[in-house]
UniProtKB/TrEMBL annotation:
Coiled coil: none annotated. Belongs to the ABC transporter superfamily. This is ABC transporter ATP-binding protein. GO terms for molecular function: ATP binding; ATP hydrolysis activity. The lineage of its organism: Bacteria, Pseudomonadati, Pseudomonadota, Alphaproteobacteria, Rhodobacterales. GO terms for biological process: transmembrane transport. CDD domains: ABC_NikE_OppD_transporters.
Length: 246
């Protein structure tokens, strides 16, 4: 059963001579509970696809369907119950003067939950932090701990889909694997569907079942991870990307 379906998605910025066609006629679908990777060099349009799904860009065309329902130009509140995003930089994505309790409590409140105390504690537990982190502020947390808070915030509405934009690339190499393992565990425990952007093919090979290779705003190839592992990519650009990552 398809959880996320992207058809003919195009995204552009600006107009006239300044127009940038960041994504051109992208197509892919992700089954419920699957993890799909988007790889490609810097500027190829990977993050823009996630931002378009999330409703963070204004100029797009095509169809984005979540659980067989096409989303409108303006996302409804119910959309954000189903789809959440984790950003690359946990230093930029948390408000410096909001405690972990405020970040999670307010998100839960906005999504209509009323058993907030119990849920804050459960979320902290789910991301491996525990209740002792509840009243800390971002400056009292390491990068990895901040990203765990950002993941807890994304999990708060009990979404079906997590969009992960290079979730470990701003972190120390030593803790990247911890966060990736946490994401793997959360996917199976919560039955989540992932779309994950990474410039690191080994990360995608570890985290995803299939992936799309992007170049200059276009998806040039979609393959399963077995194909990636066996270095059997078809498209010349995918081959080049693979060769560069070995
Ligand atoms: N807000 C914006 N205004 C104008 N152009 C933009 C904007 N956001 C992205 N772009 C352009 O769209 C193209 C795709 O960018 P995007 O960030 O999606 O690439 P990416 O593959 O995610 O790269 P990176 O790995 O560096 O994040 C680039 O040419 C970029 O300069």
């Amino acid at each position: 059963m398809t959880m996320l379906n992207i058809e003919n998605l195009s995204v552009w910025f600006g107009g006239g001579r300044d127009r940038v066609d960041a994504v051109r006629r992208a197509n892919f679908h992700v089954a419920r509970g699957a993890s799909f990777g988007l790889v490609g060099e810097s500027g190829s349009g990977k993050s823009t696809i996630l931002r378009a799904i999330m409703g963070l860009v204004s100029n797009w065309s095509g169809t984005i369907s979540v659980d067989a329902t096409p989303v409108g130009k303006k996302r409804e509140k119910t959309f954000y119950k189903a789809v959440q995003m984790v950003f690359q930089d946990p230093y930029a994505s948390l408000h410096p003067r909001h405690s972990v309790d405020q970040v999670l409590g307010e998100t839960l409140y906005l999504h209509g939950f009323r058993d907030i105390d119990a849920r804050v504690v459960k979320l902290l537990d789910d991301v491996g932090l525990g209740a002792k982190f509840r009243f800390r502020y971002p400056h009292q947390l390491s990068g990895g701990q901040r990203q765990r808070v950002a993941i807890a915030r994304a999990l708060a509405p009990e979404p079906s889909i997590l969009l992960l934009d290079e979730p470990t690339s701003a972190l120390d190499v030593s803790i990247q694997a911890e966060i990736l393992n946490l994401l793997t565990d959360l996917r199976s425990e919560h039955g989540l569907t992932y779309v994950m952007v990474s410039h690191d093919l080994s990360v995608v090979g570890h985290m995803c079942e299939s992936l799309a290779v992007m170049k200059d705003g276009e998806i040039v190839e979609i393959m399963d991870v077995e194909t990636l592992r066996n270095a059997k990519a078809q498209h010349a650009y995918s081959k080049k990307l693979l060769a560069a990552s070995i």
